[in-house]
Amino acid sequence: MFVNSFWAILPPIIAIVLALITKEVYSSLIIGIVAGGLLYAQFHPVAALKHVFVDGMIAQLTDPWNVGILIFLVVLGTIVMLMNRAGGSGAFGRWASEHVKTKTGAQLATVALGVLIFIDDYFNCLTVGSVMRPVTDKHKISREKLSYLIDATAAPVCIIAPISSWAAAVTGFVDGANGLSLFIRAIPYNFYAFLTIAMMLCVTLMKFDYGPMKEAELKLSAQEDPDSSLKDPSLTGAEDQPNPPVSQKGRVIHLVLPIITLIVCCVIGMIYTGGFFDGEDFITAFSNSDASVGLVYGSSIALVITIIFYLCTRVLSFKECMNALPEGFKSMVPAILILVFAWTLKSMTDSLGAGEYVAGLVENVADNGFIMGILPAFVFLIGAFLAFATGTSWGTFGLLIPIVVKVFTADMGNELMIISISACMAGAVCGDHCSPISDTTIMASAGAGCEHIHHVSTQLPYTLTAAGVSLVGYLFAGFVKSWLICLPLAIILMVLVMYLLKKRA
């Protein structure tokens, strides 16, 4: 009765609406999970309880991929805590204050670092956040704004990087065609990714904000001591240690070297899982990599190297390094808790057949002779809605990309298929970007040390603006079929829209 129907998407809608209304994410997710369990069990309480905990939460916590991500989070939190205790973050903040003189410069530096770390969105969110927080705090940039800049340079950048965990995921969902070749050809048509980057640059260089983000920025600017509003114990994990010891010997190298080590080790870990050391070439190894396991390998080795480096340079003692381990774990507890609830909610929607229901709409439209020229725009909307409701862009790829390939019979010479594939990826990233139950959104909040629901509500008008211009771009591209014309026009339209918004603001 409730499976493979509109009812299947009701639980995530309940959770999202409640989160936006109440500004409380934990209870909203729990209510959505319970609603999904009751619908699946047809309101039988015992069966619903079993489905929520056994088929939902326990199954998600025993999934190898999910466990790998949780381990990576804990290890990364520990590395960040070690860098803070060693004085590396503080030293970088002092160095940056001498070289980054303006608020605009601090935002541009954040965007640049986010674009450079294109390997993986989780890695991007937490690394950029830990590095840039001291700089953005000094220039009175709100944590909400920092969260947006991190989130907007995570998935949107990864989805246009041929060497990333996202490229590997997309190529794995394509049957009957060269997945990596298709991904590369689809990059110029990924309007949402390029327009999001263009929008960040416009907001930064034009020096304006709008909507809830403007309120957050003005509120912080009016405070005499901005740091007081940024010290959230639930996000730092140091509520029982109000003044954790920080080494006075820290230098910039004590932050830079662990970050570089982390990047190098994670890349090596990912290509190792893809068979690089068994004879595969770099591109193939990255396409076949297991990002979850590779990130665990890389971050764990980087943690050991970081501890050895700090011991050798005598900025921290062995006991101080070990004391940072549980603190690093505690700093990630809010993100881990929200992730577990979001994964459980996703399992409820999966069991109800939400993905199949939405994917079926696409097939029915194509089968009924829908005007093919506006198919990319339709696919973009469906992908965005599905990713927003389920909180997963990769799951959206897995459902919609095979359908699009099937509609066009995997004809690599059909430009409209390439545009539709790109529209699917752009829509999935768009929905993932603005969904409060998306793991990437959760990571961005954790990386910036921002209250999660504040991040969601402040960035939503920005993502919707980019989505609206992207939709116009896909309506145009479906008929023109040339990215050389469509992409520049879409960027020009985005700049024009931002100019009009500034005049209004």
What class would the helix/strand composition place it in? mainly alpha
Q: Please summarize the sheet with the most strands.
A: none
User: How many H/I helical runs?
Assistant: 27
Count of beta strands? 0
Strand content: under 5%
Low-confidence stretches: 225-242
Rough outline:
globular
Radius of gyration: 22 Å
Tell me the series of helices and strands, N- to C-terminal.
Answer: HHHHHHHHHHHHHHHHHHHHHHHHHHH
Distance between the termini: 48 Å
Helix content: over 70%
Mean pLDDT: 82
Describe, in plain words, how this protein is organized in 3D.
The protein is mainly alpha-helical and 505 residues long. It contains 27 helices and no strands. It has helices at residues 10-22, 25-40, 45-61, 64-85, 88-99, 103-116, 121-138, 143-152, 155-158, 165-172, 179-186, 191-206, 212-221, 226-230, 233-236, 253-273, 282-287, 291-313, 318-331, 333-351, 354-367, 375-390, 393-407, 415-434, 439-448, 452-480, 483-504. The longest helix is centred in the C-terminal third of the chain and has 29 residues, at 452-480.
Notable features of this structure?
505 residues
What is the fold's blueprint, element by element?
Layout: H1 10-22, H2 25-40, H3 45-61, H4 64-85, H5 88-99, H6 103-116, H7 121-138, H8 143-152, H9 155-158, H10 165-172, H11 179-186, H12 191-206, H13 212-221, H14 226-230, H15 233-236, H16 253-273, H17 282-287, H18 291-313, H19 318-331, H20 333-351, H21 354-367, H22 375-390, H23 393-407, H24 415-434, H25 439-448, H26 452-480, H27 483-504
Helix pairs in contact: 1-2, 2-3, 2-20, 3-20, 4-7, 4-18, 4-19, 5-7, 5-16, 6-7, 6-8, 6-12, 7-8, 7-25, 8-25, 8-26, 10-11, 11-24, 12-26, 12-27, 13-26, 16-18, 20-25, 21-22, 21-23, 22-23, 22-24, 22-26, 23-24, 24-26, 26-27
